[in-house]
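Database export, one record per block. Field names are fixed; values are copied verbatim from the stored entry.
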Amino acid sequence: MITPANPVGTVVFSSGGDGNTLYEGSTSAPVAIQSVFDANYEAVELTFGAPFSSGPGWQYDVNGQGVRAAACRYAMVVQWLAQQTPSVPLCATGNSAGGQLIGEGLAHYGLGSYLTFAELTSGPPFSEVDQACDPNVPPAPEYCSGANVGTSVGVSDATNYIDPAYPGPWCSQYIQTGSTQNQQQFLNDSITSTDAVLNYPITGVRFLFGGMDTSSAIRNGVSYQLQITSPTSVGCVPDAPHDIAQVLDGAQMIAADLIANCHK
């Protein structure tokens, strides 16, 4: 956490994957953080592990209850931060699974009451968990990258980032076998579940994608964006990979979006 003398707001940065590394680990991410700080915002990096502990990540040790239950950890931190800085706007950005945490928080944990602005980059990559684990969704061209892909995250990502929240390798097995045995659990855990909150009247939500990202994250992210009933915006960084802050113009765009929109 870096704090200016009289901050005009607070911005939370979250990395992707297990979320157990600092956001600044991406090549140009320090530029985004420093730019936000230079604009007089308090910058907070959230990690579920290194460098402060050896924690495996946000999806682990939730008694098999799934990604929705695991995401409450992020939501609790954001709510705590809101209580510490009630007089200034609180905003957030997260890449890939970091965006998944924001989406789950908005849909299921009331973060629309706390966040003034949220920028989800390269995702949420499994906004509809059932679709992200389904190997049979036909490919279609993605926004920004134009990649012709389905919605499945693939066996490797399912094994590393979704399965740990469940009692077993549910998502990766679905991808490999096509079994729909756990479909209802996946539907319930989705950001766009039937009981999800998809209207955020006081939270501006923006989605940012990379033109070099050929994963299914863009399709999954756009699916969430299209189901939000309050105003949203979407942007593209043509030369950015999945980790948008790896490239300088990606990091600069993230910072510019946060500075422009993190105001009450």
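Remark 1: The mean pLDDT is 97.
Remark 2: The chain has one domain: 9-261.
End of record.
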